[in-house]
């Protein structure tokens, strides 16, 4: 298929683009490089530097589907500067959807998030559970889901939203390289690399076994594979929504211990207060995508997830 990957110079977009190229698809990456890296565009993909708000000319070339990753994705930043999140994540996506409609592009796979659920009433979280986002980031992603449902019903768009829980690990050389890194695993590994002095542990008084937050970490390669299945499952006039996670929770302390094991390096920890807005436990039920699309994680172990992230970080630094 002829595919447009928006945000394909970012972490998850680059891994999906790489897997699509490997499957023999004709891949174009559209990215404005606001947070991505040109050298993260995989070999074999064409790169166009530009904005999703101005994709009409490119889409008119003719594409079979768009895989849409381009977005702003920092929860804390979205609370401080909500307008930017609404403009980019909702406004940008609506412009993209209108341009797709004008160009007759029939399918979209959308990169969504567990942040649409907010504080859960129960775990594991299912797709039918209440959506009460606790940040403009989550709210802007949820608003896109509403738009996708409408576009599917009105115009016959074939849409799939994938709601990611915690994504980690690396796929070959493709790894997390955020200028502002807020995620736990890359931050802990930066301490192991000596690039940061210590890990700040945000809260040890949660109602969990060891008092630290529990999250569902999924290997980015497994996550990416789900996009290829979603692309095949796209059905005209239908908007499907799937959670993507391991279905297993790991505490912050467990993650830090595994990072110590994998790197063999000391990782000093400084315990601090809770980070505002962090729910105690977030674990996905991914039963729906397993049942309907036959997806299942092939690398569910935390050790392998951390080891792949570590290897890619060392490689990027020429170590
Ligand atoms: N966390 C932490 N120190 C950090 C980064 C994260 O203690 O430097 C905790 C955070 O409070 C949360 C968990 O690690 O409980 C996962 O956070 P992350 O930002 O990686 O993902 P989130 O679950 O917020 O999407």
From TrEMBL:
Pathway the protein contributes to: Carbohydrate metabolism; galactose metabolism
Q: Where is the NAD-dependent epimerase/dehydratase domain?
A: 4-245
Full protein name: UDP-glucose 4-epimerase
Q: Subunit structure, per the record?
A: Homodimer.
One GO biological process this protein is involved in is: galactose catabolic process via UDP-galactose, Leloir pathway
NCBIfam families registered for this protein in UniProt? galE
Molecular function in Gene Ontology:
UDP-glucose 4-epimerase activity
Task: Family membership, please give it.
Answer: Belongs to the NAD(P)-dependent epimerase/dehydratase family.
EC class, as a word, reads isomerase
The residues that cross the membrane are none
Question: Which reaction(s) does the protein catalyse, per the Swiss-Prot or TrEMBL entry?
Answer: UDP-alpha-D-glucose = UDP-alpha-D-galactose
Query: What cofactor is needed?
Result: NAD(+)
Entry EC no(s): 5.1.3.2
- InterPro entries in the cross-refs: Epimerase_deHydtase, NAD(P)-bd_dom_sf, UDP_G4E
Q: Which PANTHER family does UniProt cross-reference here?
A: UDP-ARABINOSE 4-EPIMERASE 1, UDP-GLUCOSE 4-EPIMERASE
Entry keyword set? Carbohydrate metabolism, Isomerase, NAD
Read off the CDD domains from this record. Answer: UDP_G4E_1_SDR_e
Q: Name one Pfam family in it.
A: Epimerase
The record's section on Gene3D superfamilies has: NAD(P)-binding Rossmann-like Domain (3.40.50.720), UDP-galactose 4-epimerase, domain 1 (3.90.25.10)
């Amino acid at each position: 298929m002829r595919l447009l990957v928006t945000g394909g110079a970012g972490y998850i977009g680059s891994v999906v683009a790489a897997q699509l190229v490997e499957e023999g698809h004709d891949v174009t990456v559209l990215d404005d490089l606001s947070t991505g890296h040109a050298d993260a565009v995989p070999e074999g993909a064409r790169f166009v530097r530009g904005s999703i708000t101005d994709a009409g000319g490119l889409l008119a070339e003719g594409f079979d589907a768009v895989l849409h990753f381009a977005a702003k994705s920092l929860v804390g930043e979205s609370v401080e500067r909500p307008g930017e999140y609404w403009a980019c994540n909702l406004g940008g996506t609506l412009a993209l959807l209108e341009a797709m409609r004008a160009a007759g592009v029939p399918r979209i796979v959308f990169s969504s998030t567990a942040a649409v659920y907010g504080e859960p009433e129960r775990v594991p979280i299912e797709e039918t559970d209440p959506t009460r986002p606790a940040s403009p980031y989550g709210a802007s992603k949820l608003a896109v889901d509403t738009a996708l449902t409408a576009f599917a019903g009105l115009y016959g768009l074939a849409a799939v939203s994938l709601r990611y829980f915690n994504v980690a690990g690396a796929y070959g050389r493709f790894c997390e390289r955020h200028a502002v890194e807020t995620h736990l695993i890359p931050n802990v590994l930066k301490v192991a690399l000596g690039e940061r002095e210590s890990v700040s542990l945000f809260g040890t008084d949660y109602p969990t076994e060891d008092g630290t937050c529990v999250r569902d970490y999924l290997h980015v390669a497994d996550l990416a594979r789900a996009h290829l299945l979603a692309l095949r499952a796209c059905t005209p006039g239908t908007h499907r929504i799937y959670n993507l996670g391991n279905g297993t929770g790991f505490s912050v302390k467990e993650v830090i211990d595994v990072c110590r094991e994998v790197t063999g390096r000391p990782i000093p920890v400084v315990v601090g207060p809770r980070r505002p807005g962090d729910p105690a436990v977030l674990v996905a039920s991914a039963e729906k995508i397993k049942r309907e699309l036959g997806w299942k994680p092939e690398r569910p172990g935390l050790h392998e997830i951390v080891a792949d992230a570590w290897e890619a970080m060392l490689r990027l630094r020429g170590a």
